[in-house]
Amino acid sequence: MIIMMSPMAPHFCSELWSNLQSAPGRLDVSGQYIKWDNPLLLQSWPRVDPNYMLELVCKVNNAVKAIVKLPCEQLNNLERDLAFKIALEQDKVHSFIEGCDVLRFEYEIIDSYEATINIVIDHLQRRKYIQ
């Protein structure tokens, strides 16, 4: 947390870091992730765990129909067509677009945070299908 706050409050965080360096009971004693001998501003930025589950938000006409959890590494490398296929496999999405023409789909990914796929269908065709 101190490393992530350092760009906003460098002097304060540097003081915290110097006290933390001499504190007993460190979590990373080996120095594998944190280089305890280096000053705060030379520390590497924290990385997201590649197995951490992130969300693929599946929308139909901008309304959320399903949320699929995928590992971070898989989500970051997810291609547009595969995201569309995963969205179609969700029961709520599939049942909502059943009998309708897909006009287009939009895919947006925010690296190491989430991805969104929005499937745009014909509204009029949906109403006819329901009746």
Order of helix and strand elements from N to C terminus: HHEEHHHEEH
Within the CATH hierarchy, at the fold level, what is the topology of the largest domain?
Answer: Ubiquitin-like (UB roll)
> CATH architecture of the largest domain, please?
Roll
Amino- and carboxy-terminal Cα gap = 55 Å
Please tell me how large the radius of gyration is: 23 Å
Described by strand count, sense and barrel closure, the largest sheet is: 4 strands, mixed
Low-confidence runs of at least 5 consecutive residues:
none
Mean pLDDT: 87
Proportion in β-strands: 25-35%
Derived from helix and strand composition plus strand pairing, the structural class reads alpha+beta
- Number of H- or I-type helical stretches: 6
User: If strands are numbered along the chain, what order do they take across the biggest sheet?
Assistant: 2-1-4-3
Percent of residues in helices comes to: 25-40%
**How many strands?**
4
Instruction: Please indicate the count of domains.
Output: 2
CATH class category name of the largest domain: Alpha Beta
Looking at the structure, what is the overall shape? elongated
In a few lines, what is going on in this structure?
By secondary structure, the chain is an alpha+beta fold. It has six helices and four strands; from the N terminus they run H-H-E-E-H-H-H-E-E-H. The chain is 34% helix and 26% strand.
Tell me what the structure shows.
The model has no long low-confidence stretch (mean pLDDT 87). By secondary structure, this protein is an alpha+beta fold. A hairpin with a 2-residue loop joins strand 1 (53-60) and strand 2. The chain has helices at 2-5, 10-21, 72-76, 80-88, 91-97, 123-130, and strands at residues 53-60, 63-71, 102-110, 114-121. It has 2 domains: 2-42, no CATH class; 53-130, Roll (Ubiquitin-like (UB roll)). It has a 4-stranded mixed beta sheet. It is elongated and about 65 Å long. The longest helix is centred in the N-terminal third of the chain and has 12 residues, at 10-21. The N and C termini lie far apart (55 Å). The chain is built from 6 helices and 4 strands.
